[in-house]
Amino acid sequence: MMKVKGIAHRGCPSRYPENTLISFKETVKLSYSYLELDVQLSKDGVPVIIHDTSVDRMTNGQGRVKDLTLAELKELRIGGTEQIPTLEEALTLLRDQLIIDIELKQMGNLYPGLEEKALTMVQEMGMLDQVFFSSFDHYSMVKLRQLEPKAEIGLINHSASPALFPFLKELNARYLSISLDYVTPELIQRCEQENIIFIPYTVDREEDMQDMLRYPSVLICTNELERWASISSIG
Questions:
Q1: CB–CB of 159/182 below 8 Å?
Q2: Which residues are catalytic?
Q3: Helix axes 114-124, 87-94, angle to 10 degrees
Q4: pLDDT cut 90: percent of the chain above it
Q5: 3-state class of 37 per DSSP?
Q6: Does the CA dihedral 67-70-73-78 come out positive or negative?
Q7: How many CB atoms lie within 10 A of CB 113?
Q8: pTM score, two decimals?
Q9: How confident is the model at residue 130 (pLDDT cuts 50, 70, 90)?
Q10: Which of 201-225 are b and which e, b meaning 16 or more Cβ less than 10 Å from the residue's Cβ?
């Protein structure tokens, strides 16, 4: 079966709760080529998958992720039935299925050791060739590169900037994620020239999807997996 060229944003959030194993299973079922997930650290230093720095929005509990142990996080429920997954659980599920975009939710020194622990988990599972690491915190990606010269790396930035390109080259980073609001044909062309895989986020509306179809090199990030699968197959 042909893979759908696109990044499933936190799994398949239009059908199942984001960043949960059931949401990731649906992504595999829909034959997506990439999946993005968000990694933070529990109080006892375990890489866990959740987007927000607190559990308030997604679970039946309250508090900051970094203040709760893995055991405490596992007691919480998302959508009544799902647990917060560990990175290890997600990697085990997704092995040999697709490329995983591991977004490290580092912010300054919020999670000391996050880069080492996420990287070590990937290395121990022999999955370095199946993932790339990304972050809004570019210092985090500098650290990741120092830790592992062979790791694939991506930078996330809200806005576009020409200053990103020399930095991407310096880091030997292959992926660049920019908010859809800042995307121009010139930016896409520059990424093509620099051999950068360009990821606009988040592309959910049909008209934006149709627009991105004009650029075969672009790898969109979307919450609307079924919509993009339908549009891209026709296109």
A1: yes
A2: 9, 51
A3: 30
A4: 98
A5: strand
A6: positive
A7: 11
A8: 0.98
A9: very high
A10: bbbbeeebbeebeebeebbbbbbbb
